[in-house]
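Lecture notes, unit on protein representations.

Consider one protein chain, 420 amino acids long.
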Amino acid sequence: MGFKLGNIIIRPYYVILSIFLIAVISYSASVTLRIKENQQVVEQYKKEKAAFLQFNTQTTEFNKHISNIVNINNRLSPLLGLKQIDKTPALYLEPGSSTQPSGVLEKITVTTTKKGKAEISRIFLGKNMALELVSREKDPAKSSYRANLVAERIKALIAKRTAYQKIIIRPFEKNNYGIIINNSLIFTITPHEAHYNNSINTLAQAQRAARIFHNALITFSKEYSHNSKHQQEKLPGTIQINREHLKNTTAQLSHLNTVISKIAANTTQVEDKIKKCYHRFKQTPSIRPVAGNVLSAYGYRLSSFSGKVIFHKGVDLSAFVGTPVKASADGYVSFTGWHAGHGITVIINHGYGLETLYGHLSKALVRKGQRVSKGQRIAKSGLTGLTTGPHLHYEVINKGTAINPMKYLNLDILSANKIW
């Protein structure tokens, strides 16, 4: 069976088979193209999600480091006499958070409320609510970031002033559905939205959200297209928004750079101050020359030899004969030898007008002019001079006047700073 076309016999089942093969090839090509487009959208979604997570982590870490630096600066400021930084700076570069659009685009707004554990973000196109996004993220910044990102995409879509093709709903990973307009991913619907709105499933919620959004978009775009200000603009609105965003971001970075400059200047001063403080601390009497208890304090007392009240210029610390005596600060030995009443004595000059005297020694281990370090053994305690028993007589002399050594027996660099 068949019919002739010239010298060629065409059989009906050949024709049917050819049409079937052409249909199968066309359908396969269409499916392949849709799969490829879907993969591109999914890849775009994954890239944006990864970029956001990286951005969020970096911003959080940056703000934490800046806050720590400012806190350290402000804790050191009173101690070292530096200026404090009044307000801790923070860098927030979330899309939309710093943008100040003008005209109709200013009417695209985002509101965020909390209901239970859910974070509800609503996007309004004018007076109409176009989209409701639900997130249970622990970090509120992630919820606001998502809503602001969608708002930026909507602004970019409207600013292009192109006709809106049919909305496409495509499945994404983890039961999410993407809403695509003009080959651009505008927003995604997650199971959180479906659960919050009591929808049958995520797809049903995506279809419902797409209808509401499409209607609000059409209504709002008409208002935008009739706005004379935007009709006169030759550049897309997204460029204007991004310029404003860039301007605000530049201002933030400029402020941050100013704060960092102040911190750097303070850090240099802190370093210089700490070096000076450490150098002076090394030369400030701050440790006990021997570990013994105080036998006789600084001030007036009854003399064991004359029976009269006399002024005791130092403190007597208990120590057996031969106990090592340590220098209480860095300095150089200005005197060794016999000192009236104190027997064998060592005197160390520490600079800044400070000297220390160690009396009733059995033996000096240093010589005049020798430099000594804090904690270095300089002598052995004894029973020389006018004394009723073995002990160490210890004096702190400030500019030629003996002062109470008690506050110099146990100091650290912070407590030493208070007495300078």
